[in-house]
Structures are given as structure tokens and as C-alpha cells.
Amino acid sequence: MAEPIVMVLTAMLLGQVVMSVPVLLINRATRAYRLPLALFLIASGVLALNAIVPVAFPDWYQVYTVIGFPMLFVLCPALRLYIEGLTAQTHWTLNKATLKQFVLIWPALAVSCLMALLPMQQHRALFVTDEVPGGLYAVVLAGAMLVLMCLWLFECGLTLLVIAKRLLAFRAALKARYSNLDDPRIFAAKRLAFIAICIWALALSSAFLFSLLEHTILTLGTDMLIALILIWSLTFFAMQQTSPLLAPEAGCAANKQDAPGTEGSGGKYHKSALDESQSARIVNKITHAMQEEQLYLDADLTLQKLSQKSGVSPNYLSQVLNETLQMNFFDFVNHWRIEASKARLLASQDSVLHIALEVGFNARSSFYKAFKKETGQTPGEFRDRNR
């Protein structure tokens, strides 16, 4: 009989999956990039049953392994595709190219069919008692499973690297478009990527330690508790993410013909029509907008808003910021905010938080970080040394 705590935690995890999947897919606008997450949750729920089926329903365990084994090979590609859709800068949908990432599911299904034909006694020896299976059929099946599991571990490592790389690129893209990264949607997206990395770090470390020491480090109950927390966190932050943060904003399509070009052998902007004199005029335009209209005071200022105010396409703005001013949009706006905060720090007794909010920051921590990066001092140190 399975431990009561394991059964309770498994039931909670299954309940979380059953309630979350319909909610995640109910919105048609977000269904495309949330579908891989739904597949990931369903596969996780099926695999979680492995904690109770062998002991609570032993007669059904062979049927369960036939269904459950392919689910293992859904996890990695489903999570990769979800993170890809979440961080995409264009309209993202599932297509034949993305579905190729499920390449291991086909040999897994073939092995699953072989499991279904395995005599029950040999199935028990292979999956329950860990005995050496007898007969050529069982040996071939065990060998095929071993090869697939090795490939799965490799895919787990690849998934970890892909998600980490995607997160770094996502952060850079956010800084090219937003002046504040304290938005709740951005926070939720960052937590989603972090949780995804945690899931695969846990999966890889558990598999490695089990193969090295031949026994689990954590109890089954602890494993289920960690899995429940991670799945709950993943669905909680996913539900807060109502749209991809880097999806094209309204008006961007109109500027598509002005795009400075795509990345290639000559650099990111090698096809751009901008010359030095045009770049200088754009710098003057955005400098005037920041000085005269004090756009940096808007905590929700984005590249698109600056484009509308200055009359310069977002593509050209990005090029001028990156090539002429040697900074991204995030650092450009924060530079103006820091300059405005310096005068306020010296001229008033207002708290640092009050000044931070006044000049356009959303949080004290982000103000401190930007101020230290710009000046090499904290706001308090700057105030004390310059009075």
C-alpha cells in the first residue's frame, strides 16, 4: 500500500493538472503558445501516477507503463516549445517544424507497443522486481528502453541549456523595448523561465544521483511535494501571462518597411538605409523629447511610445540607440531618470523611494541598481558626498 502522504500529494498534483489545463486553453488568443504547457502538465500528471499505480493497482501496472512511457518523451519538447512561444517576438503557432522536436516520441511509442506484448511475468521482472529478464524479447526491450532513457537524459540537458539561452536573449529583448522590468507580466515570465530551469535541474540531478548511488536521495513523499510545488508555481505564473511580452505592438506592422534589416554576415543593421547624418538627427529628436517633454517620468514608457512621440520608427530607434549611443532602450531611459534623480537628491530631503517613484522607477531596488550602475554609488552615498 502506498504511503498516505504520497497518495494525498499525488491526488493534489492530479487535481492541479485537471483544473489548470481547461483554464489555460479557454482563451483563444493565448491557446497557441499555451498548448505545449497543457501537454507538459498532462504528461506530468500521467507520470505522477507511477507513485501509486504499482502498489495500489498492480494488475493495471502493465497498461499504465504502456501509456506512461511515451509521456516521458513529451516533457522536454513541450516545455521548450512553451518557453519559445512565451518569449517569441513574432506571432507564434505550432507547425510542422516545431512538431519535429517531438522526434523521440515515435521510438518511444514503438517501445510502448513492445511493452504491451510482454508477458506479465516478464513485465513484473523488468519493471517491479528489477530482476534480469529472461528471453531474447525481454532483453531486446530492456536494451531499447536503456538507449531511449540515455537519449532522454541528453535531451533534458539540452532542454536546460536551450531554456537558459532563451532566457538571456529574452532579457536582452525586454531591455530593447521596455524602460521598466518591474511589470507584473515581466515578473511572471521571468519566474516561469526560472521554474522551468528548476524542473530540469531537479530531473537531471535526481537521475544522475540515482544512477551513481543506486538509490534515491529524497523520499518519494519529498519528491512528490517538490513536484507539486513546481507544477503549482508553473501554472500560477502561466495564468498571469495573458499575452507574449514581445509580441508586435500595434503600429509596428506599419513600420515594417522601414526595418533596418535582419542579422547577417554584415551585422544586425547591415541592410539599413540610415547614414550618420540621419542617425544624428534621430539622436537630436529623442534627446529633445526627453528634455522638453520629460518622457522618462512615465514609468510605463516603451520603445513604441517613444517612437510615437518622436515620429521615428521603432526599428530606427533601436538601431540608433545600439549603434550611435551604444546602449539599449532600457539603459537609455534609465540614464535620463538617474540624471533627474541627482538634482532631486541634492535639492530635497525626500526619501530615496519617493524620488525613485517620482523620476519613473517602479521599485526602490531597481532604482538602486540603476543608480549604482550609472554612478558607482548608492543614492545615499551620492547625497552625502555631494552636499
From TrEMBL:
All residue ranges annotated as the HTH araC/xylS-type domain in the record: 280-385
Keywords attached to this entry: DNA-binding, Membrane, Transcription, Transcription regulation, Transmembrane, Transmembrane helix
Domain of life where this protein originates: Bacteria
InterPro entries: Homeodomain-like_sf, HTH_AraC, Tscrpt_reg_AraC-type_HTH
This protein's record includes keyword DNA-binding: yes
Membrane spanning residue stretches: 6-25, 37-57, 63-83, 103-122, 134-163, 192-211, 217-239
Coiled coil: none
GO molecular function per UniProt: DNA-binding transcription factor activity; sequence-specific DNA binding
Matches recorded under Pfam families: HTH_18
PANTHER family: ARAC-FAMILY TRANSCRIPTIONAL REGULATOR
Protein's recorded name: HTH araC/xylS-type domain-containing protein
Record lineage: Bacteria, Pseudomonadati, Pseudomonadota, Gammaproteobacteria, Alteromonadales
